[in-house]
C-alpha cells in the first residue's frame, strides 16, 4: 500500500474531473465523489468514506476540496435563505469535514491539502453573497490549517481562474466572456502543490492563469510576509491602530 492516494471531492464533472484525471495520469490512485456534493456535508458519510479509503488504500497523500456550488447572482435582499445557507454548507462545512477526518492520515503520510477557492474570497461583491462569504471562510480554513511554522500539514488555496464549466457557463457574470483559463494551467499548479515544490505558499492563495510554478518559486526565494496572499484587513495607513 505505497501508491500515492489522492481524494478529490466534486470530481464527477467540471474542474474536479480535470484535476482527478490529471492526478491519475501522474500516478495517483484517485478516490472521487461519484454522484453529488451532498455527502461532503454529512459528518457520518464523510467519516465513513475516509475510513473506507484508508482501509482499502492504506493512506491518503492529497486531499483536494473541490466540491462547491454557487447561489443565484442576486443582491442579498433578493436571496433565497435556504439556498444561501445550503451554499455555505457545501462550500465550508464540506471542506471542513473532509479536512477534519482526513487530517490524521495526511499527517501520517506527510500529505497536503488543496482547497479550490476563488478570487471572490478577496473581493467585495454585492451579488451571489453566499458564495463570496463561503470562499472567504474557506480561505480562513486554509490559513488555520496550513499557515505558519507550526502547521501540521501543508494546505493551499488554489483559485482556478475562470475555467469553462457548466457552472461558469450558467453565470450571468460570464455571458460575454471570450477568454477562459485553460484546465492545463490549473493542473500544472495542482501537481506542483502536491509535489511539495510550492510548500512556501502553504496557508496562502495561488491563482492559475496569473501565477506560474516558476513565478511562485521565484517570489518565495525572496521570502513571504506574514500577510502575503492571505485574507486580512486593509488599514488606512501606518497610523491605523487595527493594522
UniProtKB/TrEMBL annotation:
What are the record keywords, sorted? Oxidoreductase
What residue range is the signal peptide? none
For this protein, the record's InterPro entries field holds:
NAD(P)-bd_dom_sf, Sc_DH/Rdtase_CS, SDR_fam
Query: Per UniProt, what is one GO molecular function of this protein?
Result: oxidoreductase activity, acting on the CH-OH group of donors, NAD or NADP as acceptor
Q: Which family would the database say this protein is a member of? A: Belongs to the short-chain dehydrogenases/reductases (SDR) family.
Q: What is this protein called?
A: NAD(P)-dependent dehydrogenase (Short-subunit alcohol dehydrogenase family)
Please report the organism this UniProt entry assigns to the protein.
Knoellia remsis
